[in-house]
Amino acid sequence: MSTANASFPPDTVLTGLAPVIAPHTRLVVLGSFPGAMSLQMQQYYAHPRNQFWTILAALWGVDLPSMPYAQRLDEIRARGLGLWDVYATCRREGSLDTSIEDARPNDLASLKRLAPRLQAVAHNGGESAKFMRHTLALGVPVVRLPSTSPANASWSFERKLAAWRAVFVEHAIA
Question: Between 173 and 41, where is the model more confident?
């Protein structure tokens, strides 16, 4: 199976990635569920057209896309940023959020325990934002950011970057 079009049989129950959260994490970005390539590579936002790492690189002036994945994770942890997804498991053919079926959510209430200095939660896209009522219960500000997915072609890179910058600056992550 090539990493360019990694896929799993439709009846397969897929398991997401572990949270990337440190005790000093101040902002957690929640995606929906890793795409097929991310699952295969066991890396958040592994698809080369996903703009997540490119947006962070522009915000921080650090060439994250060229770094080894472990080094990227070290960089985001050091800056107080955490990553996770709203779904722990699901069935899905391909990578589109619209194809997610039989999803089981992650224990989002555990974010306060995992990140005792948590100041805010940012949902990366609409599918993730469906869980805003759960994250609002954490008692911190919750925002919806435009999806960094290549499927979100209606937003230009510059427009996404501006939206992400505003949230990162507000929470002293940029």
Answer: 41
Please state the separation of Cα 58 from the chain's center in Å: 17
CB atoms within 10 A of CB 49: 11
Q: Region 115-124: what's the mean pLDDT?
A: 96
Q: Residues for the chain: how many in total?
A: 174
Local structure of residue 110 (DSSP, 8 states): G
20 DSSP assignment: B
On whether residue 3 sits in a domain, the answer given is no
Catalytic residues: 50
Confidence of residue 8 (pLDDT cuts 50, 70, 90): low
Strand ordering across the sheet containing 87-91: 14-15, 87-91, 101-105
What is the total count of domains within the chain? 1
| Residue 19 DSSP label | P
Q: State pTM to two decimals.
A: 0.90
